[in-house]
Amino acid sequence: MSESLYYTKGGSKAECYKEILAQIKSLIESETDMIANMANICAVLKEVFAFFWVGFYLVKGEELVLGPFQGPLACTRIAKGKGVCGTAWIQAKTLIVPDVNAFEGHIACSSLSRSEIVVPVFGKNKIIAVLDVDSDQLDMFDDVDRAYLEKIVEYLFDNNQRNYK
């Protein structure tokens, strides 16, 4: 894939996701380094949707450790079961939080973050990371985001099965 991204500026959220989905798949399918692929996924999502923060946290023992991201400084480590990321990890499911201040145990890496979606990234029989996306607006994420972000992390899983050592 080239270094250019093609999507309709001003299109609906679903249209933008549809347009970038094949591009993301093409971008990562021939790359064997998971960190490089995570970095490019963050860049694509940040550029297309102008999310406040987009990044991955990698499972390291009993905590999540900051991985590739786009946005302001972030929390470096999150304990299993803590905050939205740690909760999504332990529950092994995507969490959409319309108002992070109403989420019991929310970890405020930035006071500007208002809503969040966290999607687990599965490896062989376990979660290997989570994709965390924050917005500076309330109630920014919905089932459209869930469906497409889950598809994007599924590409990481598929690539993991083929390429990552």
State the name of the first-level CATH class: Alpha Beta
The CATH homologous superfamily is named GAF domain
Query: What is CATH's topology name?
Result: Beta-Lactamase
Number of helices: 4
Strand order, main sheet: write it out.
3-2-1-6-5-4
Give the proportion of residues in helices.
25-40%
> Termini, distance in Å?
23 Å
- The average pLDDT is 91
Q: How many β-strand stretches? A: 6
What is the H/E order? HHEEEHEEEH
Largest sheet: 6 strands, antiparallel
Beta fraction:
15-25%
Q: Using the CA coordinates, give the radius of gyration.
A: 15 Å
Runs in which pLDDT lies below 50 for 5 or more consecutive residues are none
Categorize the overall geometry: globular
Number of domains: 1
Description:
By secondary structure, the chain is of the alpha+beta class. The chain has one domain (13-162): Beta-Lactamase, CATH 3.30.450. Helix content is 38%, strand content 24%. The chain has helices spanning 13-29, 34-49, 83-91, 143-162; strands spanning 53-60, 63-70, 77-79, 95-97, 115-122, 127-135. The chain has a 6-stranded antiparallel β-sheet, with helices on both faces. A hairpin with a 4-residue loop joins strand 5 (115-122) and strand 6. Helix 1 (13-29) runs antiparallel to helix 2 (34-49). The chain is globular and about 40 Å long. The relative contact order is 0.17.
